[in-house]
Write a structure and sequence with these properties.
CATH class of the largest domain: Alpha Beta
Organism: Desulfurispira natronophila
Distance between the termini: 34 Å
Pfam families: Ribosomal_L7Ae (PF01248), YlxR (PF04296)
Shape: elongated
CATH topology of the largest domain: 60s Ribosomal Protein L30, Chain: A
Number of domains: 2
Number of strands: 9
Helix content: 40-55%
Protein name: DUF448 domain-containing protein
CATH architecture of the largest domain: 2-Layer Sandwich
Strand order of the largest sheet: 6-9-7-8
InterPro entries: Ribosomal_eL30-like_sf, Ribosomal_eL8/eL30/eS12/Gad45, YlxR, YlxR-like_sf, YlxR_dom
Largest sheet: 4 strands, mixed
Structural class: alpha+beta
Strand content: 15-25%
């Protein structure tokens, strides 16, 4: 059963509200991204594409939909802020896997898990060595997994409390789906630039 429907103020198409970005105006006119969709007050919705987000940030549209004056300056940097929030949500989904003990790292361990078929999602660092990337991609392809290139070795390592990690395996289907969803939003916004 579909959830509540909302309309993107840029393209005017209706979608399940959970699939859209929400922007709320604080009483002082400050614009706040409400990715959890829980903040009080009037909000606007936008499709998770750079084109719709950019068009939805027009002050005239926001003034009309939020029913309060919005200055052009209030929208400055909002696209970059949204991309940063999406990126943080991707990291948070990996942290959930770590906390649940369903995220594993380290080249040898990830290779072993891929061979056994225990991996639901594979994350490779953007600066992984070519030889390791090739090996992990071959193992992933054998299991019909598409590796996701995200973050640096140092950033992935920090999540696990170590200096560097080139690969992360998510072993829980629900956590993997959360990661893939969050990563998809981030990638869509980032690639649109």
């Amino acid at each position: 059963m579909p959830g509540p429907q909302r309309t993107c103020i840029a393209c005017r198409s209706s979608h399940d509200k959970k699939r859209l970005f929400r922007l709320v105006a604080a009483p002082d006119g400050t614009l706040v991204w409400d990715l959890k969709q829980k903040l009080p007050g009037r909000g606007t919705y936008s499709c998770p594409t750079l084109k719709c987000v950019t068009r939805s940030l027009q002050a005239k549209k926001l003034t009309h939909h939020l029913r309060q004056p919005i200055e052009d300056a209030a929208t400055d940097g909002k696209v970059q802020e949204l991309i940063a929030l999406c990126r943080q949500n991707v990291f948070n989904s990996i942290k959930i896997g770590i906390k649940a003990r369903k995220a594993h790292s380290g080249h040898t361990r990830v290779c072993s898990m891929l061979t056994r078929g225990d991996v639901q999602a594979l994350i490779l660092a953007s600066d992984i060595s070519a030889s390791r990337q090739h090996e992990l991609q071959q193992l992933a392809e054998a299991k019909q997994l598409v590796p996701n290139i995200f973050a640096t070795c140092r950033e992935l390592g920090e999540l696990f409390g170590v200096e560097s990690r080139s690969a992360v395996a998510l072993c829980d289907q629900g956590i993997a789906q959360l990661f893939i969803h969050q990563f998809g939003l981030y990638r869509t916004m980032k690639e649109g630039l």
